[in-house]
Design goal:
This protein is mostly helical. The chain has helices at 2-11, 34-52, 58-73, 76-90, 94-102, 108-126, 130-148, 151-154, 174-185, 188-194, 203-219, 225-251. The chain is built from 12 helices and no strands. The protein starts with a helix and ends with a helix.
């Protein structure tokens, strides 16, 4: 339970640290429970979407739900996406990319990346029927985290001096990997319950994380925390887009 509490403390703004003491060693395995935090963040986002859609237009409901998740997570992954876009967009060498990502200022690529992310997310979810949108938001949050978590298993950490937050992630054991996969896949069952064909949307984030791993290995020889956050959001967008594509094809 301490490890789950560490993951919720690390990936959200929920003040669990006020209620229980969490040993520092538990933070090295937070990535294992990342998809489980997706049950919380995705569940709250999906609930907000469903509730606000009862009294607001769908577009407004999506914006409110996304705002709620941003407040819940403290824009942790969005910050990673902005740094990722700035670093890989503006850097030409490994050292330069890492230096840019470490800079706390946001640049042009970061701003553009966030704009496209929010436009893509809002427009895609808004295009779906409410039930599928709610299930898709919940499932994509958890499953994208399961995909992004594979970075720590496949790539080394890119910074020789270690992480900015002084926390290093351990590679997973076979049992930990099983926890990640199951906790990422179970919410997808909700999509399959609504329409079994929608389960095929999981192949989009699997493809995206594969391409990102190859890209990161080529450019910086590994991953950083910012890369993890960016990978999570990019996988999420691809799964939502695939869900919308499958739904629209069937509606033809």
């Amino acid at each position: 339970m301490k490890r789950i509490a560490a993951a919720l403390t690390f990936f959200t703004r929920i003040p669990i640290w006020k209620w229980t003491e969490i040993p520092q060693k538990n933070y090295s395995s937070v990535v294992v429970y990342w998809p489980l935090t997706g049950w919380v963040t995705g569940g709250i986002t999906a609930s907000l979407l469903w509730l606000t859609a009862q009294v607001f237009p769908m577009l407004t409901a999506v914006i409110i739900a996304l705002t709620g998740r941003t407040l819940l997570t403290g824009a942790l992954h969005e910050d990673g996406l902005a740094d990722f876009c700035d670093g890989f967009g503006g850097g030409t060498t490994k050292d330069r990319i890492l230096a840019i990502m470490k800079d706390s200022h946001i640049g042009t690529y970061g701003v553009i990346g966030l704009i496209f992310y929010y436009l893509w997310y809002v427009s895609t979810v808004d295009s779906l029927p409410l039930e599928i949108a709610v299930a898709g938001v919940f499932a994509s949050d958890a499953f994208s985290k399961a995909c992004a978590a594979q970075l720590v298993n496949i790539l080394p950490y890119a910074r020789p001096e270690g992480a900015k937050n002084k926390i290093s992630y351990d590679r997973m054991t076979i049992w930990q990997l099983l926890i990640v996969i199951l906790s990422g896949l179970l919410p997808v069952c909700l999509l399959a319950y609504l329409d079994v064909c929608l389960i095929m949307s999981i192949f989009a984030p699997i493809l995206v994380i594969g391409l990102l791993i190859l890209y990161m290995r080529h450019k910086i020889g590994g991953y950083t925390g910012d890369c993890c956050g960016a990978a999570c959001l990019l996988c999420e967008l691809s799964m939502l887009a695939a869900t919308a594509m499958i739904y629209n094809i069937q509606a033809l």
